[in-house]
Amino acid sequence: MTDVATPGDAPPIVIIGGKGGVGKTTVAAATALTLADAGRRTLVLSTDPAHSLGDALASRLADRPKRVAPRLWAAEPDADAAVRARVGQVTDDAYAALPRKIMPAVQRHLETASNAPGMTESALNDVFIEYLERVPRDWDHLVVDSAPTGHLLRMLELPALLTPWVRGLARQRERAVDADRFATGVLGTADEADDPLLARLHARRRRLEGAADRLRTEATVHLVVLARHMVLAESARAATSLTSAGFVLGDAVLNQSPSESDSTWHELAREQLGVPGVVELAAADSEPIGPERLRALGVALTEGGFPRGDHRTSTTNR
Ligand SMILES: Nc1ncnc2c1ncn2[C@@H]1O[C@H](COP(=O)(O)OP(=O)(O)O)[C@@H](O)[C@H]1O
Ligand SMILES: [Mg+2]
User: With bands split at pLDDT 50, 70 and 90, how would you rate the model's confidence at 190?
Assistant: First the structure.
């Protein structure tokens, strides 16, 4: 592996975002291949319900990670299964904390919610969090081929948004346990040791808090853009929202970049997105499908220093 360019200090979690059709899947697959070629155990995960990662890698992918190259695994999680798992989880949490008599109403609400817009994306987020927890134990890097911009912010913010809900349920449960203890003459307030259901809610709260924290300290979001004003405008809005929500933006990719002599778009992208750097990726002669063609793009990205993050903690472990 001597002549393979090495991907600098890539952060553990690399999230590829951007408007529809700009090349997210292509960049995610190429980046993941390069990381794996450089000796890192890498999982590339599609969280776009309209999966196309398998098309890019020219491999039939499934719900569970499949090995597609040395040290590289890829997965296209089953969105329907993810929605069912999420509804099951929320129902279990509610059962743990809320009075039995309101459960039928909660159940009806959840059934409606499972068909609501955005549910699929947010359920795929739960899957993402599960894999995030397996880094660095099972993989050195997790590369995410994400859904188009609008969904990305919602997806990343979800663990932080869910935490108050789970915390609220835990408080409800504490009150119920306290009331029981009072009735039986036990003094003091309830804690996790007294009640397995309370312990479960607190465990879930800690997981969500941990994920929300890791998303802000170990992940970088890399926006892929094209030399188009509409693409830059949408990505600039996404960049602002992501930054104000506490996420770290890494280098952006200017895909299918215009001629090398014209640096206008490069500068424009850096300015409008407020990113540490912009890496240009030329248009390939033929559609970059399959590991060999993707590798050529991956090497070009790596030579541009991608996926470097401007990360507060990226220097601590790699
Ligand atoms: N640098 C590139 N050169 C040539 N074709 C590209 C390049 N990047 C992406 N493509 C092609 O553009 C199309 C859209 O890319 P894709 O990665 O699926 O975008 P997204 O995931 O953002 O929707 C695909 O056909 C892909 O093969
Ligand atoms: Mg895609």
Answer: low
Tens of pLDDT, residue by residue over 33-50, are 999 999 999 999 999 989
Catalytic residue among 3, 37, 48, 251: 48
- Report the separation in Å between the CA atom of 207 and the middle of ligand 2, taken as the mean of its atom positions: 28
Q: How far apart are CA 205 and CA 220, in angstroms?
A: 23
| The residue count for the chain | 318
Q: CA 119, 123, 125, 126 torsion: positive or negative?
A: positive
> Which CATH code is given to the segment(s) 28-86+112-313?
3.40.50.300
Instruction: In whole angstroms, give the CA distance from residue 76 to residue 303.
Output: 28
- Annotated catalytic, 92? no
> Which among 80, 107, 113 is positioned nearest to 94, based on CA atoms?
107
**CA distance between the termini of the chain:** 19
Per-residue DSSP letter, 270: H
H/E stretch holding 223 reads strand 219-225
- Which of 128, 115, 116, 118 lies closest to 150 in space, CA to CA? 118
How far, in Å, CA of 85 to CA of 90, rounded? 9
pTM: 0.89
The response to whether residue 287 sits with its C-beta less than 6 Å from ligand 1 reads: yes
The DSSP secondary-structure symbol of 280 reads E
Q: Tens digits of per-residue pLDDT, 269-287?
A: 999 999 999 999 999 999 9
